[in-house]
C-alpha cells in the first residue's frame, strides 16, 4: 500500500550585488581628458534580459561623457557637460556607455 504526503518548500530569492570592473586609479593633468573602460555585471539584472541597472557616476573635477547613450534613459545630468550623471538601462546598454566613458578635467 502506498502513502502520499505533501511537503512545502519555501525558496528565498537572493539579490546579488552588482560588480564593477575598473582600473585602480586614473590620473589626469589639468585640461586633459581620458577614456576609462569600465564593465558592470549583475546576475540578477541579466536573468531574462529585462532587468534594468541604474548608475550614478561622478567626477570630482571636470565632466563625464558616456561612450554611448543608445538604450539608456539619462535621469540626471547632461552627457558631456556634467560632473555627475545618473542613468538607467539594460546591462548591455550600460556597458556600452561605461566602456567608452570619458572624463575631462577643468581648472
Number of H/I helices? 2
Q: What's the helix-strand series?
A: EEEHEEEEHE
The number of strands is 8
The residue ranges in which pLDDT falls below 50 over 5 or more consecutive positions are none
- Radius of gyration over all CA atoms, rounded: 20 Å
Task: Based on the model shown, name its key terms.
mainly beta, three-stranded antiparallel β-sheet, 2 helices, elongated
Task: Describe this protein's structure.
The structure is a single chain. This protein is mainly beta and 107 residues long. It is 12% helix and 34% strand. The protein contains two helices and eight strands, in the order E-E-E-H-E-E-E-E-H-E. Strands 2-8-5 form a three-stranded antiparallel β-sheet. Strands 4-7-6 form a three-stranded antiparallel β-sheet. Strands 1-3 form a two-stranded antiparallel ribbon.
Task: Give a quick rundown of the structure.
The chain has about 110 residues and is mainly beta. It contains two helices and eight strands, in the order E-E-E-H-E-E-E-E-H-E. Strand 6 (about 70-75) and strand 7 (about 85-90) form a beta hairpin.
Summarize the helices and strands and which ones pair or pack.
Blueprint: E1 19-21, E2 33-36, E3 39-41, H1 43-46, E4 52-58, E5 63-65, E6 72-76, E7 84-90, H2 91-99, E8 101-104
Antiparallel strand pairs: 1-3, 2-8, 4-7, 5-8, 6-7
Amino acid at each position: 500500500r502506498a502513502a502520499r504526503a505533501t511537503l512545502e518548500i519555501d525558496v528565498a530569492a537572493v539579490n546579488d550585488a552588482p560588480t564593477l570592473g575598473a582600473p585602480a586609479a586614473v590620473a589626469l593633468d589639468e585640461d586633459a581628458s581620458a577614456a576609462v573602460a569600465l564593465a558592470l555585471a549583475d546576475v540578477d539584472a541579466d536573468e531574462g534580459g529585462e532587468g534594468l541597472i541604474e548608475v550614478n557616476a561622478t567626477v570630482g573635477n571636470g565632466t563625464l561623457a558616456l561612450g554611448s547613450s543608445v538604450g539608456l534613459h539619462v535621469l540626471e545630468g547632461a552627457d558631456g557637460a556634467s560632473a555627475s550623471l545618473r542613468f538607467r538601462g539594460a546591462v548591455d546598454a550600460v556597458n556600452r556607455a561605461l566602456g567608452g566613458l570619458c572624463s575631462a578635467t577643468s581648472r
